[in-house]
């Protein structure tokens, strides 16, 4: 019984599996804010900062959500809920802040234009 309680603890295997499932669902459904909340909580920032492939993934995820947001707006002529961060603004903030070095290192700036096209 106590072992089951440990599995459900935060950072336990069952918790990680649930979070991964929610992150994948949010990735597919455009759950931008919840996805990034999980990302910040679950992915060690030292890992992201120290590995170019992790920084590239983070950039690709920002581009994905920005493109998904634009596609949803065109299809539904609506925007994300009031009070939530807009993925295009988040992409811009990322590119101007934490992602600046990644873009320079990868010569990847052209990818950020894709959501706007």
Structure description:
With 117 residues, the protein is mainly alpha-helical. Helices cover 71% and strands 0% of the residues. The protein contains seven helices and no strands. It has helices spanning 2-8, 13-29, 32-42, 45-50, 52-76, 87-96, 100-106. Helix 5 packs antiparallel against helix 6 (87-96). The N and C termini lie far apart (55 Å). Pfam families: CTLH_Armc9. Residues 21-102 form the ARMC9 CTLH-like domain. This is ARMC9 CTLH-like domain-containing protein.
* Rg over CA atoms: 16 Å
The general outline is flat
SSE string, helices as H and strands as E: HHHHHHH
Number of domains: 1
Q: Please, what is the average pLDDT?
A: 77
Helix content: over 70%
Number of helices: 7
Distance between the termini: 55 Å
Strand count, sense and closure of the main sheet? Answer: none
| Topology, number of strands | 0
């Amino acid at each position: 019984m106590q072992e089951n309680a440990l599995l459900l603890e935060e950072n336990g295997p069952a918790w990680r599996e649930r979070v991964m499932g929610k992150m994948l669902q949010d990735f597919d459904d455009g759950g931008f804010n919840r996805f990034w909340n999980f990302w910040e909580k679950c992915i060690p920032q030292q890992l992201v900062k120290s590995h170019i492939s992790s920084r590239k993934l983070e950039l690709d995820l920002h581009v994905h959500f920005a493109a998904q947001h634009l596609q949803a707006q065109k299809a539904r002529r609506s925007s994300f809920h009031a009070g939530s961060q807009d993925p295009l603004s988040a992409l811009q903030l990322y590119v101007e802040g934490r992602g600046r070095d990644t873009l320079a290192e990868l010569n990847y700036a052209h990818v950020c234009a894709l959501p706007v096209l």
